[in-house]
């Protein structure tokens, strides 16, 4: 029987991604924050703010894309930063790096896992939103949603690797991630509609990738628009942030524990 390595690099990446996906699914905290929390928020938002029609669109149709962005960020950024920091400080990354598996396969496998989880949570939100709350999404916009989710997931994975280089011990990982992301959620249209956010805060949010992921998904869900649902300006900003994150990760990322931790 051929080993995964003997079957080619693609099979090796898929084999690694399967291992990483099982690890995520067996983690109760990761399952809750990635798959369950966005769905809970959807029910909470509808329960508090209602699901009445505004300008011909149900409010739930505006909740789902924002919460989809939240799910993508949880799967691709928050889970990765915390798990990478813990694995590095406990010496797991060092041991994995010492195996014959190339470093790029480990990184590609973890990124593919994040993309799969992101697509899964977006599918769950759309399905529940459509069945329970009547959320509408044009069939023509489905490719745009998928493309935006994949680009956003890869971007936040790269940023996760970059941010992990600034976290020196595993106890600081979750507080630092939440301190960064919670303010961005509130000013980027995740929890609050952009129409209720002061314009100066919206301009601040547009500097960061969270707003562009959320805006790209909101536009795809907008029934008043046409096309395949891809906002190239938002994709472009996400790509710029991915390039920045990649440069930092290549410069600073370490597989060994921090000596000062």
Would you list the SSEs in sequence order as H and E? HHEEHHHHHHHH
| Rg of Cα set | 19 Å
Strand count, sense and barrel status of the largest sheet are: 2 strands, antiparallel
Question: Any low-confidence stretches, pLDDT <50, length ≥5?
Answer: none
Rough outline: globular
Number of helices: 10
| Number of separate strands | 2
Structural class: mainly alpha
Percent of residues in β-strands:
under 5%
* Widest beta sheet: strand line-up: 1-2
Number of structurally distinct domains: 1
pLDDT averaged over residues: 88
Span from first to last CA? 43 Å
Helix share, percent: over 70%
Topology of this structure?
Elements: H1 9-25, H2 28-49, E1 53-54, E2 57-58, H3 59-89, H4 92-97, H5 103-133, H6 142-164, H7 173-187, H8 199-205, H9 209-221, H10 232-252
Antiparallel strand pairs: 1-2
Give your account of this protein's structure.
By secondary structure, this protein is an all-alpha fold. It has one domain (9-252). Helices cover 71% and strands 2% of the residues. It has ten helices and two strands; from the N terminus they run H-H-E-E-H-H-H-H-H-H-H-H. The protein has a two-stranded antiparallel sheet with strand order 1-2. A hairpin with a 2-residue loop joins strand 1 (53-54) and strand 2. The longest helix is centred in the first third of the chain and has 31 residues, at 59-89. It is globular and about 60 Å long. The protein starts with 8 loop residues before the first helix and ends in a 9-residue tail after the last helix. The mean pLDDT is 88.
